[in-house]
Specification:
Blueprint: E1 4-9, E2 15-21, E3 27-32, E4 53-59, H1 75-89, E5 94-99, H2 101-112, E6 117-123, H3 133-142, H4 151-159, H5 168-179, H6 183-194, E7 209-214, H7 222-231, E8 236-240, H8 247-250, H9 252-271
Parallel strand pairs: 3-4, 3-5, 5-6, 6-7, 7-8
Antiparallel strand pairs: 1-2, 2-4
Helix pairs in contact: 1-2, 3-6, 4-5
Length: about 270
Amino acid sequence: MTARVQSVALANGVALQCVEQGDPSGIPVLLLHGVTDSWRSFEPVLPHLPDSIHAFALTQRGHGDASRPTSGYRYSDFSADVAAFMDATGLDSAVLVGHSMGRAIAQRFALDRPERALGLILIGAFAGEAGNPVIVEVEEAVSKLTDPLDPAFVREFQVSTLAQPVPPEFLETVVLESLKVPARVWRDAFLALRGDDVAAEAGKINAPTLVVSGDRDGFAPIGDVEVRTRTIPGARLAIYEGAGHGLHWEEPARFAADITSFMERSVAWRRS
């Protein structure tokens, strides 16, 4: 299975980098990374996905090697990019897999374009970011960032998402990707977290949904995740014992298996 890295120009003038793999006739799955990450957030997962899944791991606006517009870092902006990406690549609908910020974008997409969301897999599902003490603490630090970013701060931030070790070379990749993100994008993206408008509307989501959480997630405590899961009609919750906020980095094979199982049990029939 060969992964193809490419840049996709959207109709709105933004260019997103992505990696594509799998059978083009398979069910499309869009993998949406968290704040300051890139498509490489899902690099450990991709080798474990079967060829039957047509996977696209995106680098979203402002991040990695994607375009960096001066504004437009609300969830609705990212969601509009996802729709434009699907238009540009000829995808009518897809399953959306989102980590942290990416899960909010996936939910926003499912709310605004329900006919195009075949299903949702949400990692690190906050019950609502406003008032979350960990997010508030990080926001305060991010508000003071200037370019060039301090590599020590970026490393500390990424390490804080983990409860289990990951390969050192992968952690180094994650840090280097985050260092590509300008300070202004860090600030704007975290400001979007504060103004999360997704939590209050979660009850309107009608796509099959799997919520996945580590029981040692310092950003999204299990109690919050359970609240979020109950608010989404029919959502199921899978808890990874001993895992943190970046559980797909810590246990990529297990997470890929959960994606595959979700596709087989909850999604395939919706496309037929």
